[in-house]
Design brief:
The strands form 2 sheets. This protein has a 7-stranded mixed sheet, with helices on both faces. A two-stranded antiparallel sheet has the order 3-4. It has 9 helices and 9 strands. The chain folds into 2 domains: 198 residues, 3-Layer(aba) Sandwich (Rossmann fold), CATH 3.40.50.150; 119 residues.
């Protein structure tokens, strides 16, 4: 083991799953990264991975420091009564992350129950066991008891959720087990316990490194960075909201302009209809005059023939006007239909923007609610 060094790593897994930045285990990632470099373990077994926040912290250190460590993640990737149940999307994202960023190191995803995976490992063969499965008292005690034989002489067991604000049974088990063995503990990010149940060599080396003070550095940095992430995310959400409001206002303005255009078209249509009505009236008048001329035909045939010709000319002019009127009406109706389709599209876009605006407000409330479950207890 080398001297303890505090680094500032970049976790590549965040590029595929940004939720890892705010996962319950997130506050322990930099400690885990530096711990793997310090210990240089031969084998790490993780019991419970979910989206892989802790798994990819170990993996990033193994990759960056070119270690030969074997890393195993044991999980059914189906969920449980506390974490909830989920589908194939979780194991799919974990597998994709391994393939994309950690294909060159020895990462093994064992889709099994913790008990079924016991036979895959010899006794005294594991350097680090990370227990982060079901957090009931009975489940954590069972995992510790059944997996303890797999730990080597100076191996270390990590327990997550030992200071859970939800008062999981893992809290109670940790309080009991830590009184029996050398240990360290972190109280932030739902708590992480380090237990040395089979030997004090590594514990004494960490004591020599003044690890209790080092642990405080990780705790303070984790709390600071989590608050910074929350503030940045909230700022981004406010910015997105303002942009949506601006865009919404622009769309409303466009919608109002469209309504004005439609009103103008309706007005033009009304004018055209009134003109048509006048033409119809004029046509009726002309027809009546023609009828009168026909009645006078017997009196003066020659004069009537002339009048008939004049009537026909008048009718042709009227029909031309009617045809022009109908063509104009068809154009107006076509323009009106296009503007109505545009109005419908803009209304749909406005509804989408309002829905997205509502979603952003919910996310703001979500981050506000996170303050309820964050335990800032200091040792």
């Amino acid at each position: 083991m080398s001297k303890w060094r505090i680094k500032n790593p970049i976790f590549e897994s965040d590029q595929l799953n940004s939720k890892l930045r705010v996962a319950p285990w997130e506050g322990h990632r930099k400690f885990a990264y530096d711990f793997v470099e310090y210990l240089k373990p031969v084998r790490i077994v993780e019991l419970g991975s979910h989206y892989g926040c802790s798994l990819f912290s170990f993996a990033q250190s193994i990759k960056d420091h070119k270690l030969e460590t074997e890393l195993y993640a044991v999980d059914t990737w189906g969920g449980d009564e506390q974490a909830g149940y989920y589908g194939e999307e979780v194991i799919g994202l974990v597998s994709e992350t391994v393939s994309k960023y950690f294909n060159d190191i020895n990462v093994n995803l064992l889709r099994k129950t913790f008990d079924d995976a016991l036979s895959d490992f010899d006794d005294d063969s594991v350097d680090i066991i990370h227990i982060d499965g079901l957090h009931t008292y009975e489940a954590v005690k069972h995992d510790f008891t059944t997996w303890l034989p797999k730990l080597n002489r100076n191996g270390i067991i990590l327990f997550h959720d030992v200071h859970s604000p939800l008062e999981y049974g893992s809290n109670q088990f940790w309080q009991e087990i830590k009184s029996l063995y050398p240990h360290y503990e972190f109280t932030h990010s739902w708590g992480l316990g380090m237990l040395f149940p089979k030997g004090r060599d590594i514990y004494e080396k960490l004591e020599h490194e003044n690890f209790k003070d080092i642990a405080l550095i990780y705790e303070y940095k984790a709390l600071f960075e989590f608050e910074k992430i929350k503030n940045n995310d909230l700022s981004d959400m406010v910015k997105d909201r303002d942009e949506l409001i601006t865009k919404n206002e622009k769309n409303i303005s466009n919608l109002n302009n469209t309504i004005i255009d439609i009103e103008k078209l309706v007005s033009e249509k009304d004018i055209a209809l009134k003109a048509t009505e006048r033409l119809v009236v004029e046509r009726d008048v002309a027809l009546k005059a023609t009828e009168r001329l026909v009645d006078d035909r017997d009196v003066a045939l020659k004069a009537t023939e002339k009048l008939v010709i004049e009537r026909d000319i008048a009718l042709a002019a009227v029909e031309k006007l009617v045809i022009e009127r109908d063509e104009e009406l068809e154009k107006v109706n076509s323009r009106l239909s296009a503007e109505l389709e545009k109005l419908s599209y803009l209304e749909n876009e406005l509804n989408k923007l309002n829905a997205k605006n509502t979603e952003q407000c919910e996310l703001i409330n979500y981050y506000k609610s996170k303050k309820i479950i964050i335990n800032f207890k200091k040792k």
